[in-house]
Amino acid sequence: SRRRHQKARTGCGICKRRHIKCDEAKPECQNCLTFKVRCDLAIKNPANEHTLSLMTVKAYNLLLEHLQWPGHTDAVISYMEIKEKHPSPIFNFSGACIADLVRSLVASHLAHIQPQHQNHFRIMAESFSSAGLRALASLLASVDANSSHTVFVAAVLVCITTLAQGPRAGEYLLFSDVAVAELFPLLQGLKSVLTTFSISAIFSGPLRLFSCHTARASRTTADILHLPRLEWIDPFNQLKDFVAQSSGIEMESNVEAVLSLGQCYEAIWGGADLAYQGDAVNGLAFMWTYRLKDDFVYRLQRKDPITLVIFAHFAVLLTSLEYVWFIKGWPEHILSGIAENIDHTYLAWLQWPLGVVG
Predict the structure, then answer these.
(1) Residues forming beta bridges with residue 278, ordered by sequence position
(2) CA–CA separation, 163 vs 156, rounded Å?
(3) What is the Cβ-side half-sphere exposure of residue 298, based on CA atoms within 13 angstroms?
(4) Burial class (CB in 10 A: 0-12, 13-18, 19+), 344
(5) CA-closest candidate to residue 116, choices 185, 182, 198, 28
(6) Helix, strand, or coil here: 18?
(7) What pLDDT digit, counting tens, does each position of 175-190 carry?
(8) Among 51, 135, 319, 341, which residue's CB has the most CB atoms within a 10 Å radius?
(9) Contact predicate 39/66, CB 8 Å
(10) 3-state percent breakdown (helix, strand, coil) of the chain, nearest 5
């Protein structure tokens, strides 16, 4: 028969919700210590609280309560309750894949902000990510204009959750030591959705509030985000000359990738006058990866040295996004992978990216 517990009317919030007796020991009660979960009675660390807004703390505490119990994934907070308590455009989707991918992202963030429970939350993140991918695969079998916006958001979330799970040994976003790099098929899926369905169809329904028109920027990303100045023009011109002087049928594709990369550099850090007037999407670092031709990525996966050199300069672009928690560590990780795999005669071309990234 089921073990009976004395109902808790005092004590920590975890014990109350599970209707068990709490010994109210501080800084953490015995039940929470036993189950290795965060106790409401734990003394908060004021030094860490300033990094998150009060709303973020409340939202993540709400989700934390339902993510932390091992073996009880059915206890995760209901999707409707999340929507009611924390309204957001992302919660206007009914697809199960969106719910699971959001939960995966939350679990990864909890692993980031609570290192003492890092392994547990990483397992949770991978579990929800796998569930989200299975649901997305099922949705793709019958995708149409009405569901295109859901598939688009799911594809974006898959890319983000992949980054959020953090750098992994042998995996460097667009090339890998063992198999096809994770991000490449995800980007292909994103492109497929955008080319199969019209922009107006995708940016309808829950996405109708988002602008789908090309915007013009009048300020650099560095100016907007108060990023430090970067002297990039001379090193980048050297890269362009190096690639242009290379031989082989792939030279044209490499030059195209470098020019596209230069557009992003200028939008983020400005030209010689530190200003930028142009397409706003160039200020998005990952726009470069989206624009890459498949043949360039295939050469990158074969660890062609010139494509690795170009990719090393993309790692510098990522430093403009390091204020986002799930980008931290990726620039260094990518460069370390390139340095380990590139022919030693090309190592000199990594000096500038390594000097910037550190």
Answers:
(1) 217
(2) 11
(3) 5
(4) exposed
(5) 28
(6) helix
(7) 998 776 767 777 777 7
(8) 319
(9) no
(10) 65, 0, 35
Q: Which two tokens stand for residue 256?
A: 């195209």
CA 334 – CA 175 distance, rounded (Å): 9
**pTM of the shown model:** 0.72
Q: Tens of pLDDT along 84-123?
A: 544 455 555 556 788 788 888 888 888 888 788 888 888 8
The residue type at 169: A
List CB contacts of 338: < 8 A, sequence separation 6 or more: 172, 308, 309, 311, 312, 315, 350
The better pLDDT of the pair 3, 282 is held by 282
d(CA 302, CA 226): 37
In the block, tokens 């082989």 appear at: 248
DSSP string, 104-161: HHHHHHHHHH-GGGHHHHHHHHHHHHHHHHHHHHHHHTT--TTTHHHHHHHHHHHHHH
Encoded amino acid at 47, one letter: A
Task: Of 113, 114, 89, give the one whose Cα is nearest residue 102.
Answer: 89
Candidates 342, 341, 317; CA nearest to 330 is 317
Cβ 334 vs Cβ 181: under 8 Å: no
CA dihedral angle for residue 179, residue 189, residue 334, residue 107, rounded to 10 degrees: -100
Task: Write out the two tokens for 339.
Answer: 């340095």
Rounded Cα distance, 321 and 14, in Å: 36
Contacts of 259 (CB under 8 A, 6+ apart): 240
Contact 277, 248 (CB under 8 A): no
Only one residue has tokens 């023009």, namely 233
Q: Which structure tokens are listed for 123?
A: 């397992």
Inter-residue contact 188 to 155 (CB < 8 Å):
no
Burial class of residue 100 in the structure, from the number of CB atoms within 10 Å of its CB (0-12 exposed, 13-18 middle, 19+ buried)? buried
What phi, psi does 168 have (nearest 5°)?
-125, 145
